[in-house]
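Bench notes, afternoon.
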Amino acid sequence: MRTDTPHTIYRKDYASPSFFVDTVEMGFDLDPDATIVATRLTMRRNPASRGKTLVLYGESLRLVALRMNGKALSKRAYTLGHGTLEIANPPDEVVLEIETVTQPSQNTSLMGLYVSNGNFFTQCEAEGFRKITFFPDRPDVMATYKVMLRADKEKYPVLLGNGNLVEQGDLGDGRHYAVWEDPFRKPSYLFALVAGNLVCQEETFRLQDGRDALLQVWVEEGNLDKTQHAMESLKNSIRWDEERFGLELDLDRFMIVAVSDFNMGAMENKGLNIFNTKYVLANPRIATDVDFANIESVVGHEYFHNWTGNRVTCRDWFQLSLKEGLTVFRDQEFSADMIGTDSGRAVKRIEDVRVLRQAQFPEDAGPMAHPVRPDSYVEINNFYTVTIYEKGSEVVRMYQTLLGRDGFRKGMDLYFQRHDGQAVECDDFRRAMADASGRNLDQFELWYSQAGTPRVTVATRYDEMSNIYTMSFTQSCPPTPGQPKKLPFHIPVAVGLLDSSGRDIPLRLQKGGTEGSSEGVHANDPAPTTMVLELTQQTQTFDFVGVLEQPVPSLLRNFSAPVVLEYDYTDAELGFLMANDSDPFNRWEAGQRLALRRMLSLVREVKQGAALDASLLDTALTDAFRVTLTDTSLDPAFRELALTLPSESVVAEQMEVVDPQAIHAVRRFLRRSLAQALRAEWLAAYEANLTPGEYSPDAESAGKRGLKNLALSYLLDLDESDGHQLAQSQYDAANNMTDRLSALGALVNSSAPGREDALARFYDEFENEALVIDKWFSLQAVSYNTDVEAVRALMRHPAFSLKNPNRARSLIFSFCSGNPAQFHAPDGSGYAYWAELVITLNALNPQVAARLARVMDRWRKYEPALQRNMRNALEDVAAAKSLSKDVLEVITKSLAN
């Protein structure tokens, strides 16, 4: 661990590498306690960097031998520093041979080469390759790789590497070998190897150009019956990328490998994707509908990286969203297309925006706020954030909104034509979009360079004499660390107008009217009902003509930009939109606004001492919920989303000073009130959405289960024996994990007499299924009934281990992030627990510890008494010895801003 002051790296200081690497040849003698790595690099000086020292990076390595151009280097010929190996005044062309030893079995950071359950795995993004050998470990150093793996054949019968298998055989001493060659130049972060006792499902897949590719999903023995969905998702991903973007698989084979000890969700190593088991293993017995959907999405995401990330990669880590934001957009589009219906696409869009609002908007408003293309970092692992991924995806989506689907495809084609095989910048992608479309997108660059969530305020006016409806827009963006003032963004705002019958009004803009009224507008037909207005100034006005009556505006349709939109809707208008808007996203949005308005009002009442009783309620929200719940013309999946109240974290974001206890009390009260008022309707929805017969994770069936289980959760909020029995009966009869886990969760959040027995039975049935036991821990961690002492007791359970990231996240992260009322206990016990676990995890796995540290970065937003306890906990972590730079960066920024 580092104890020195961490060094800040700035984008403005980028300089091209002093040496390029053309080829990498590696030999591994795999041993869990001491793996020997022999590396031969052919290098040449960058002409722009003549006279510079050759610098290689290395961590946790023992250097055994170093030769340059065939001659051994004495210790006087190089300098072995803190994480670096430097050779002064090398010749212009270098063949460097390096022999190192690493200890995979001791590598609890899970970066570089490590052992999990007796098997070897690697994780090299962002800077893990330097834990394998000394190397100029940066993404703009691209080379071809040829790798020989040698290991005990009985212990490690499977030897996998990047690219294509070119040779394999026995070594005659109980060991065997395999040689893998990747014909495509790649940065070191895409290197991978796997060795162990694994089995695979494999299929031959015919590509669009007529070639056959071998597809393999590798898992540990006993998990082969859980790989079919991942295989189908991979095949669908390959076909979709061929058809949507004309991009084909470029290797003879493509492999997915599942590992239970993994810091991330998955990794796109060229041809050898390594996945967290959570995003591979699934069958109806162990996986929920959400698991099946997530596997499809993540498999797609990692496969799509083959082009958006691998064939074209990042010049430096500041450009991370170049690959991640773009690829998230691609996996979102893929998942929506796999559903295949307009309502299904709308549901997917709502789900994606919920993630953005619940996670990214708070990040934009906190001390760790940063642009989509950051200007500086201390530890790059801390910048694998929702801003880079989800906001980055929204930025890419805006290109498609502005240019149209065909225009976006032309931009993608030009991007690959120009940059295949290169390490490039976000600006290169923007220039390809601009040049392919003929549009000036210079101002659009601000989405990459400015942090924060823009706010768009809308005012409207209707002139019944001229039949003109005017929309005036004002944009602003709050200050963020290092950026006190912001320039206007280029914001596409999709709008519609509804008449008094709820029908869309054809939209026509006045020609030559007020500023901006005839510019920046496009439509697919002469009189569209949705129009994209382009905001490029601080204030702009648009006049719509031929509007024969006072309309209700539908603003920011399909969430056309990642902004906070402010418009003073009345409750009646929100109810009207919730019942009538043709844009499904805004129909959902209207209900959320109405519910959020009611919840914030009740929180204010509670803080003023009012008792939560029926006198505080009106019928507007109940009536709106009843209309949606009973409207069987709506997709069940949409109704589930529309009838889910805003989360406690979303409510907290709307408050200047957060009172977690008041928010929790209000949300529970409102749920119980809706449960009581709509009891008959919830029961009817439950019965109408049963899915008898064999389980299928298809969108229609999953949507029915989602609405049915939402209804069950509302009924259990009444905490009555009838509801308890309904949940118990569902648990006993369930033929799939979705229904079983939903019933168990409803029981755990109730006072049902059988809740402890149900938890025990569930554990006994699934104790050998690690991913299911993760669910068991998580379900208890977020329960209303679980306080910090209950979490500590669960940590003493024999199935719990801090060393496994999935298990740590399932309990500790779920409690700290997903149970705000208990975590923010007034006595500060939750914060003391957090500090203790951040310090403990820091010694085991700094990357996981830093993620947990982020839970407290918004501490200044809470009530003064909570703030004091939170600051004390932050200072306890800051005072701990040997903090990693991962954790130190988060804690330092949290205390400073």
